[in-house]
Design a protein that fits this description.
nine-stranded mixed beta sheet, 6 helices, CN hydrolase domain-containing protein, C-N_Hydrolase_sf, 324 residues, six-stranded mixed beta sheet, 21 strands, C-N_Hydrolase, Nit1/2_C-N_Hydrolase, hydrolase activity, acting on carbon-nitrogen (but not peptide) bonds, in linear amides
């Protein structure tokens, strides 16, 4: 059986905003494209500026929805004051459980009061929000979805992505975690057009599966990859920045990685180190303190994306591997 990890970029469709979907292939560990569904027709901005300012937040969420919303509101004000048009929050921005089962208890549908509050926050501040890792109600009472929600500056939900690769691990020297025991895995790869380029939407543990990011770039034309996360202290120290820079280099995309940081409770601690990385793999945004609460700001430079891809045109090479 032959399959391709890289493929030539398909012809652009300049007049449509697309959700590109896939389902797992029984012959592969990774999903492969199946269908393209047109969600809405909206012309791309022909007068798009050559650069646009974005921000990534770092926070320490707790098991208090109101307190976390207050923190997010403050960070939105900081991002708006800095001129950012998009603010990316980390996984579990709205809630981090202190006890097993608590996340299921607070899980809501996307039209519930929690998400409505964040939609209002985006609208009132005229800013796009990337909300990675929202506890969306699942198909039964025993499961939720770890959902990345993208809200525009009018307060409308533009796109959602359910985390595809779930965190089922025994962390060396750390915790044992089985996310699949209470979370439904997503099946769709999601890329969406925005004023900040074409966004590839992912969540946390997805970062360890490079083929997902290859598809977002080479099959779905992503320019900016969103990686909200809550990496553990142990895995973050070892792999966080290395993996993020690798994804940026191999896809020639910007990577925006908003991170949870510090101790959420007696049982859980996150690594932090929120980063914005350019298509050459250079860190262009980082908080001065790996554990501090705040934002980092950087400009998405579309001419840099074009330059890197033109000088090293890896999208024009098709690499196939035969599996026996």
């Amino acid at each position: 059986m032959a399959f391709c990890f890289y493929s030539q970029v398909p012809a652009k469709q300049p007049s449509s905003r697309l959700l590109l979907s896939s389902t797992p292939n029984s012959n592969s560990l990774y999903p492969h494209p199946r269908s393209v569904q047109v969600l809405a027709v909206a012309p791309r901005e022909s007068t798009m500026a050559n650069s646009v300012r974005v921000a990534a937040a770092q926070m320490t969420s707790i098991n208090d929805l109101a307190a976390n919303f207050a923190t997010c509101s403050r960070l939105v004000k900081e991002a708006s004051a800095a001129g950012a048009k998009l603010l990316c929050f980390p996984e579990n921005f709205s809630y981090v459980a202190a006890k097993d089962g608590d996340s299921l208890k607070i899980a809501e549908s996307l039209d519930g009061p929690i998400m409505k509050g964040y939609c209002s926050l985006a609208r009132e501040s005229s800013i796009w929000l990337s909300l990675g890792g929202f506890q969306e109600k699942g198909s039964d009472d025993a499961h939720l979805r770890n959902t990345h929600v993208l809200i525009d500056d009018a307060g409308n939900i533009r796109s959602t992505y359910s985390k595809m690769f779930l965190f089922d691990v025994d962390v060396p020297g750390g915790m044992v975690f089985k996310e699949s025991s209470f979370t439904e895995a997503g099946k769709d790869i999601v890329a969406v057009d925005s004023p900040f380029g074409r966004l590839g939407v992912t969540v946390c543990y997805d970062l360890r599966f490079p083929e997902l990011y290859q598809q977002l770039r080479f099959n779905h034309e992503a320019q900016v990859l969103l990686v909200p996360a809550a990496f553990t202290k142990v895995t973050g120290q070892a792999h966080w920045e290395i993996l993020l820079r690798a994804r940026a280099i191999e896809t020639q995309c910007y990577v925006i990685a908003a991170a949870q940081a510090g101790k959420h409770n007696d049982k859980r601690e996150s690594y932090g180190n929120t980063l914005i990385i350019d298509p050459w793999g250079t860190v262009v945004g980082r908080l001065p303190d790996r554990l501090s609460m705040g934002i980092t700001v950087a400009d998405i430079d579309f001419s840099l994306i074009d330059s890197v891809r033109a000088k090293m045109p890896i999208s024009k090479v098709q690499f196939c591997k035969t599996v026996t």
